[in-house]
Amino acid sequence: MIGALVSGRGSNLQALLDAGLPVVAVASNTRDAPALERARAQGIPTATFSLDCHPDRTERDLVLATWLEEHGVELVVLAGYMHLLTKPFLERFPGRIVNVHPSLLPQFPGAHAIEDALAAGVAETGVTIHLVDEGLDTGPILAQEPVALEPRETLEERIHAVEHRLYPAVVRDLLKVAAP
Ligand code: GRF
Fold this sequence. Notes:
Elements: E1 2-6, H1 11-18, E2 23-28, H2 34-41, E3 46-48, H3 57-70, E4 75-78, H4 87-92, E5 97-101, H5 113-120, E6 124-131, E7 141-148, H6 155-178
Parallel strand pairs: 1-2, 1-4, 2-3, 4-5
Antiparallel strand pairs: 5-6, 6-7
The protein binds 5-O-phosphono-beta-D-ribofuranosylamine.
């Protein structure tokens, strides 16, 4: 059973849903995330855990972890989630939190990976799927696929196409390990 964390438009969440993966709960740090609407459209429980409503980030993450556990989540899938997770949250799902990132890590970590690759003028960038630790896009790498930088006008679109194919496949495999 998958719990997805989202902050944005949710195209990766949609790819997981379209692949028929068992997403049972979707949470966000912001109530404005269009991704939440995609989950609601499929009748999946959603919730927002805003930092405004909790004393600090650790407390927020603990409430979030409990909510996910209550929904039977075994594997936490970050799908465009824009907050770092605190250690107490990571300890609730050891080795069971995965992220997709639009570069060949360790190149171009952070929130502007595609722009950074374009600015650096590398020949290729790509997509990385990795387990999540306390760092910014630093956990153990599970899968990578290169994407040529040129033509640059279509780079973003081509990266997202790779994400939408690769992420559901890796998540499907992880689920076999995560599920008891
Ligand atoms: C994706 O490019 C993903 O790699 C990154 O954030 C973006 C999320 O897009 N972590 P979406 O919300 O899934 O459409």
